[in-house]
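Working notes for the structural subgroup meeting. M.R. asked for a predicted model of this chain before we commit to crystallization trials. I am recording the input and output together here so anyone reviewing the notebook later can reproduce the run.

Input as submitted:
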Amino acid sequence: MTDLSGRTVLITGASSGIGANLALAAASAGARVAVAARRADKLAALVGEIEAAGGTALAVSMDVEDEASVIAAYDAVEAAWGAPDAVIANAGINVRASALDIAIEDFDKILGVNTRGVFLTAREGARRMIKAGVEARGRVLLVASIGAHKVLPGITAYCASKAATAHMGKSLAREWARVGINVNVLCPGYIRTELNDAWFDSEGGQKLVAGFPRKRLMDTSDLEATALYLVSDASRAVTGSVFTVDDGQSL
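Returned structure, recorded in token form:
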């Protein structure tokens, strides 16, 4: 179900957290993995880890807000391996602040990375797939959040960006259905990452976790099976769907 042999997968936001974990998982499943982010040192370390385990990986610099940077990253992947036939648009940021207090520059940055960046990544991926003729196997996976459909206190901008991403996925799926590109959305629950590490060590974060039905955070590995399925050949008939993987946190 999750065999990715012969596939080239590009993953954004791959320098840490969910993106790095999915890169390792995709490589273990047989894919050639292009890891994209801004932090070159982190990407180099990840490529080394993948190659040490017998996988194939390539680091490409990408600022998802900058269309020229996105195009250049795809150019680098295509020069090495040809057009990717699967893309995981995972890059995202957050700034914890109430709607009354958030600086408009922070609001714009969150939307710029989490929504504009996802769109630019997905669109360029689709363009490459169509041009190369690999769209019949094309897979695009947008990473959103349970914040797309559940109010998460104190992060209105983040929730808005993820809700936009979830609906964007359905819209792109409809638009690209006739050319054979499947687009789906993954909405993870709370996972400890660089974005929220300090928060979960705080009293408020610990209180939040205590309120979950299972009173625990998820692990990045909990997303692997769903994500790999959605970028594999096995998901041929799955497009326009939004998958919530949250260990019951949104119940």
